[in-house]
Amino acid sequence: MLIVIHSCTPDDNTPPVVEIELPSDGAFVDAGDTILVKATATDDEQITRWVVTMTDDAFIPIGPRIEFEPSGKNVQIETDYPIPIDLASGTYYIRVSASDGEATTNAFSQLNLTGIPKDRLGLVAIVESNGNYTARYRMDGQAWQTIADLGAEFVGADLSSETQRLVTSGWETEPFRVFDLNTMLEVYQRDCQSAPGEPCVSAVATDGEYFFMGMREGRTRSWSASGQLDSDFTTPEFRYPRGFHFQDNRIYTVERSFADNFQRWASYNADNGFPLQEILINGSYVDAFPVTTNQTLMFSNENGLGQMRYYFYVENGFQLPIPGPTGTIQAAAQRTPEKYFYAQTDGIYSIDLSSTNNLLFKGGVSAEHLAYDGVTNELVAAFGNVIIGYDANDGGQRYLTSPGGEVQAVFVWFTR
Fold it and tell me: Per residue, what are the HEC states of 214-276?
């Protein structure tokens, strides 16, 4: 099914019209193929930018990005696109984006790809011991080893199996750093300047392709896997990013305000950083996951009670809370667009939103971090100084391991 998404600024109600001629929707391809992409765009203003890339079934970019800077109101492109050779079999999309400088339209053509099975490599964790933070990894069945000493500050980390990169950062004196997980060496670092004693970095994340730094000054920057600056845009006055979510070629930020201390869910055009929409978050944000195009499931806490709400981009609104949580949600993980795990102090719960079937998955486990591994069907739970792997079907314990400190973050590491 061909999908077209428009992202407009308030002053531009006529976004470009984009049509993909090739590849045909539903085409069958193999990993490593080079395919022809043909598309056209029309607009009442000048088309200033084209971007061709490939996404997974959650519309997260996973392939090279080819950019053009044409000029005209009726333009077309024709380019060869190299499909990465190391993709697993599944549904993917060619995404063609056209921008007139104010509005962007994203058109998608579905690909049915035969590829290389994805394998799990192991776990990566950030741990704290005696006030010092360390990035560590554990290949499956082996002992924990150190990637790097991260110093006395830690604000966040994220992992991209697509680029085999780990990003970490402190908030002031410890820099934003990106590591190559194949060599366990630092690829680059970026500093964030602030007044002495003032925090600078407020959030860290990756969309799978780029690495994002949220800054207390009210700014977001991102860099490629090799360290090239990709984006640099500001948030509204007195607000700064505290978290990121990436979906439908939009950057969602969880923003905190210096003025009123509320949290807001704001979206920006991923191509140019233009602000799109915003809405207040009831309570405090925990996590968010893509459900389908323009639909997100958000986990939050309000007055000590966990909340699960669908957010719809088109309406820019939340639905009423979904019944289930009975206490504060500490962490959440997505199994499928309909099935989730979430952790409370009394245990880990599983919920199927197609039937609102809410079950106690593992009682007495007060998990602080959760991650789901769809390759081995495993739920990874971390609390204190231990990480436990559970069979996601029956809850049977597969292993218990200590990474050498209090777990601050845990990620499942895959081949590309």
Answer: EECCCEEEEECCCCCEEEEEECCCCEEEEEEEEECCEEEEEEEECCCCCEEEEEEECCCCCEE
pLDDT band at 195 (very low <50, low <70, confident <90, very high): low
CB 163 within 8 A of CB 225: yes
User: Amino acid identity of 274?
Assistant: F
How do strand 275-280 and strand 284-292 relate by DSSP bridges? unpaired
Residue 241 lies in a domain: yes
pLDDT band at residue 215 using 50, 70 and 90 as cut-offs = very high
Q: Which region holds residue 225: left if phi is over 0, alpha if psi is between -120 and 50, else beta? A: alpha
Q: Is residue 323 part of a domain?
A: no
Same domain, 186 and 249: yes
Q: In what order do the strands lie in the sheet with 284-292?
A: 284-292, 295-302, 305-312, 317-318
pTM check: above 0.85: no
Distance separating alpha carbons of residues 379 and 395, to the nearest angstrom: 8
d(CA 160, CA 208): 5
Cβ atoms within 10 Å of 385's Cβ, excluding its own: 15
Q: Per-residue pLDDT for 305 more than 60? A: yes
What residue numbers bound the domain in which 276 lies?
A: 153-280
Which tokens sit at 416? 């590309």
Of 85-89, 104-108, 143-147, 266-270, the least confident: 85-89
The string of DSSP letters for 65-119 reads -EEE---SSEEEEEEEEEPPTTPPSEEEEEEEEEE-SS-EEEEEEEEEEE-PPP-
Indicate whether 173 and 77 sit together in one domain. Answer: no
For residue 65, give the CATH number of its domain.
2.60.40.10
Cα separation of 4 and 19, whole Å? Answer: 9
Contacts of 98 (CB under 8 A, 6+ apart): 16, 18, 41, 43, 47, 49, 50, 75, 104, 105
Same domain, 70 and 21: yes
